[in-house]
Design a protein that fits this description.
The complex is a heterodimer of chains A (about 290) and B (about 300). With about 290 residues, chain A is an all-alpha fold. Helices cover about 75% and strands about 0% of the residues of chain A. In chain A, strands 1-2 form a two-stranded antiparallel sheet. In chain A, a hairpin with a 2-residue loop joins strand 1 and strand 2. In chain A, helix 2 packs across helix 8. Chain B has about 300 residues and is mostly helical. Chain B has a domain of about 210 residues. In chain B, strands 1-2 form a two-stranded antiparallel ribbon. In chain B, helix 10 crosses helix 11 and helix 10 packs parallel to helix 12. The longest helix of chain B has 28 residues. Chain B is globular, with a radius of gyration of 19 Å. Chains A and B meet through helix 4, helix 10 and helix 12 of A and helix 4, helix 10 and helix 12 of B.
């Protein structure tokens, strides 16, 4: 394979990874604070995608406002479902809650299917030609996605590092009991992290759809890759999720040279198996498993 | 319908072994079901192997796959097993859909032979199969009950309740977990193989995660940790599914897709409600005292 092809694959991989990053961050954030893998990030990605779709096509909103709507809608739904569906189950343990989140995913997916059917839908966006340079191809939409993703992650980092609430979140993730002693309300932090986490998922959902189309299964299709990203990076670590997403994105593109595109999720699965066998902690994870 | 109920019961019994007794969660149940179904179907279709042998092979293939999966994840927290099993099921489905040379892809395999299918008319065939399934469920139930009461079962329960204690007591936790998982996967595989031969047609689209939820629901509703509950739950879930299939089209103004969505939503919602309100199920596992008193005349 020549260098150009390789570069193109790497480029594609980074683009995929940039989008994958969003739900992965959501997943890992929620895991860090609430201590269970919330499979429902997949469904909330779909929720975000469809929320953005509705405002984009029915109300004629432009791209950025639609994205904002996607984020907020997914975040709000996330808090609602967590509060009423998942929170009561949490005392039963992380595994039971994980199962509940799978059921929640299917429930949400079907609510969307109920209202929107199974058809593929696309956003209304201006059509722009791909850029070509040095034998490589890049669509402006992908670049825009990358920029948006970058901005979102940067904002998150700033939030977590510099603001009081952000630090409170990190405190609860690190040591809930100590945080409690310091007077940090774990409940409120839990709600906040769900808001942020699902918001990110919604962002990721819409970004995925911008490039292609959306349907009720948009989120679920990516769930293995999202998990792979979080596992590779290490559950609970946001920088890990970023690195993990990029790695998985590039890895998927490279594997797709030999496998057909349908196998994308299978690659995610294999990555998960590989990481779990060799280094369950992931690259930046801290907990012992 | 009863046949399907029986199959669900069979699977629920299998799952009880891991989830109920050992506390291991398997979110990829349909994956093992699919492995059993495809292996058995392919063996009998392509190689003409007798049905009984094919079914046995299907079950064994599933068990081996389960063991393999467990070997990789046994050391890790339950969350990871959940993810890996989910991924496994999806990968199986994708492989089945794409490896056309092996599985005929999305078109599925049809014409899978059933026992005496040609000789009997449809009603008698269904009855015969029902008898077979009932026999298998009874067999599985008997085996599972014996296992549950045996030292093997006790170790599994110990692992579920407190893994560290079990390890300290000298039990090789990992070996037990792998065995339990393999057995459970085998049960699922046999159910899958039976399904294939009963239905004479399988396709990748059947094996969706929703299915896993159905089985989980069956076990949860019937009662985790005990086999009677598993059987009861199995039939209950099928009853719900089928009545949904009849009743929902009666609701005015719903398209087919909406009806299907509603049904799936209700199942998921039911599972969530159960998890929230009555996690122990209809027939909860009886609390065991240190010494098992005979059941007659002893106050509980």
């Amino acid at each position: 394979m020549d260098a150009t092809r390789l570069l193109q694959l790497l480029l594609n991989g980074m683009m995929t990874g940039a989008i994958l990053m969003m739900p992965a961050i959501g997943l890992t954030l929620i895991y860090g604070v609430l201590r269970f893998p919330n499979f429902a990030v997949a469904a909330h990605a779909t929720v975000g995608a469809f929320a953005g779709y509705v405002v984009n096509t029915q109300l004629g909103w432009a791209l950025l406002p639609s994205l904002a709507c996607a984020v907020v809608a997914a975040a709000l739904v996330g808090v609602a479902t967590d509060e009423f569906v998942l929170k009561p189950v949490r005392p039963a343990g992380s595994i039971t809650t994980a199962i509940a989140s799978v059921a929640l995913t299917i429930a949400l997916e079907n609510v969307i299917r109920f209202f929107f059917g199974n058809d593929l839908r696309g956003y209304v966006l201006p059509v722009v030609r791909d850029w070509r340079f040095a034998g490589l191809r890049l669509s402006p939409q992908q670049v825009e996605n990358l920029v948006i993703a970058g901005v979102a992650v940067a904002v998150l980092f700033a939030f977590l590092t510099f603001t009081r609430t952000g630090k409170a979140m990190r405190a609860v993730a690190d040591n809930p009991m100590l945080a409690n002693i310091k007077g940090i309300d774990a409940d409120k932090v839990g709600r906040l992290v769900t808001f942020v986490g699902m918001g990110f998922a919604g962002l990721g959902g819409m970004l995925t759809g911008l490039d292609t189309t959306i349907d009720p299964l948009t989120g679920f299709r990516t769930i293995l890759s999202v998990f792979a990203a979080a596992v590779v990076g290490g559950f609970g670590s946001v920088p890990g999720a970023v690195i993990g997403a990029l790695t998985v994105g590039v890895g998927e593109e490279l594997c797709l040279v030999v496998l057909s595109p349908e196998y994308r999720s299978a690659v995610g699965f294999l990555v998960i198996l590989l990481v779990l066998s060799v280094r369950p902690r992931g690259i930046l994870g801290q907990r012992e498993f | 319908m009863a046949v399907t109920g029986g199959l669900y019961a069979l699977m629920a019994i299998g799952v009880n072994l891991t989830w109920g007794l050992a506390g291991m969660v398997n979110l990829g149940l349909i994956g093992f079901f699919a492995v059993g179904a495809y292996v058995s179907a392919l063996l009998s279709l392509r190689l003409g192997i007798p049905i009984v042998a094919a079914i046995a092979c299907g079950g064994m293939a599933a068990a081996l796959t389960g063991a393999g999966l467990a070997v990789i994840t046994a050391r890790l927290r339950g969350d990871y097993l959940a993810i890996v099993t989910l991924g496994f099921a999806e990968t199986i489905r994708i492989t089945a859909a794409n490896e056309i040379w092996l599985t005929n892809g999305s078109d599925g395999l049809s014409g899978i032979p059933g026992p005496f299918r040609a000789a009997l008319n449809p009603e008698l065939y269904n009855l015969l199969f029902l008898a077979i399934v009932v026999a298998m469920v009874a067999l599985a139930y008997a085996l599972a009950e014996r296992l549950a009461k045996s030292p093997f079962g006790r170790v599994l329960r110990a692992i579920r309740d407190d893994e560290q204690v079990a390890a300290v007591a000298g039990k090789s936790v990992i070996a037990f977990k792998i065995k339990a998982f393999a057995l459970s996967a085998g049960a699922l595989g046999i159910a899958g193989a039976l399904y294939a031969h009963f239905n004479s047609f399988i396709a990748p689209e059947i094996f969706v995660p929703l299915f896993t939820l159905y089985i989980k629901l069956a076990l949860l509703a019937g009662g985790r940790g005990n086999n009677r509950g598993a059987v009861l739950g199995g039939f209950l879930v099928v009853f719900l599914l089928e009545s949904g299939r009849f009743l929902i089209p009666l609701l005015p103004g719903l398209s087919a897709v909406q009806g299907a969505a509603l049904r799936e939503f209700l199942i998921a919602a039911l599972l969530l409600l159960l998890l929230r309100l009555r996690p122990s199920g209809l027939l909860p596992e009886p609390r065991r005292t240190l010494v098992d008193y005979p059941r007659t005349g002893v106050a509980r």
